[in-house]
Amino acid sequence: MIPINQFIHSLPKEFDQDKEPWKITGTLADSINRIISLLGDDFVINDDIAVHKTAVVETGVILKPPVIIGEGCFIGAHAYLRGGVYLANNVSVGPGCEIKSSVICDHTALAHFNFIGDSIIGSEVNFEAGSVTANHYNERADKNIFVSYNAEITATESTKFGSLVGDRCRIGANAVLSPGTLLPAGSVVKRLALIEQVKMDN
């Protein structure tokens, strides 16, 4: 069991922190549709896309339902959100970013040209330009994703899972978090770094 609350202090209450993170991202679209049905009139809701009235969505942004964009969020021009995306409050998404099947917590910032795939990102996290959470092992014959926690390897039984990134992490420009990355709160990833916590022979 991966204890999400050891990484993220305040996962939005709509999500069960006792579930494995890849099970949250794997069913995110269904969860977001359920959450949208409970939202109040602070949100403008159209075709399973809910945008808080205080959020700013610039020209050219593509939102593929279901999506929730929380209070005070900023979405830069030509960003692309798909596959079930939940942005909590005061999240900043820079121009040209892509987010797929992910939860992003309060006050987190993506610079620009980031990819966040099938991931749960904590609060006050900063991704510099070009950094990504990879969510699939294209190069491996066995594409199943494993995670490492407390020196134990756990099979996710999934071929699509990105990262669990703890609160206040800093991800440097053009860094890559390999599928299954678990970053404790406050981690710093250097620019151009590759994080691969579980290495397997092909």
Question: Quick recap of the structure?
Answer:
The chain is mostly beta strands and 202 residues long. It has helices at residues 21-26, 28-36, and strands at residues 43-46, 49-52, 56-57, 62-63, 67-69, 74-75, 80-87, 92-93, 98-104, 109-110, 115-117, 120-121, 126-127, 132-133, 146-149, 152-155, 163-165, 170-171, 176-177, 181-183, 188-189, 194-195.
What does this structure look like?
The chain is mainly β. The protein has a single domain, classed as UDP N-Acetylglucosamine Acyltransferase, domain 1 (3 Solenoid), CATH 2.160.10.10. Helices cover about 5% and strands about 35% of the residues. The chain has helices at about 20-25, 30-35, and strands spanning about 45, 50, 55, 60-65, 65-70, 75, 80-85, 90-95, 100-105, 110, 115, 120, 125, 130-135, 145-150, 150-155, 165, 170, 175, 180-185, 190, 195. Strands 1, 2, 4, 5, 7, 9, 11, 12, 14, 17, 19, 20 and 22 form a 13-stranded mixed β-sheet that branches. A 7-stranded parallel β-sheet has the order 3-6-8-10-13-18-21, with no helix packed on it. Strands 15-16 form a two-stranded antiparallel sheet. The longest helix is centred in the first third of the chain and has 9 residues, at about 30-35. The radius of gyration is 16 Å and the shape is globular. The two termini are about 25 Å apart. The model has no long low-confidence stretch (mean pLDDT about 95).
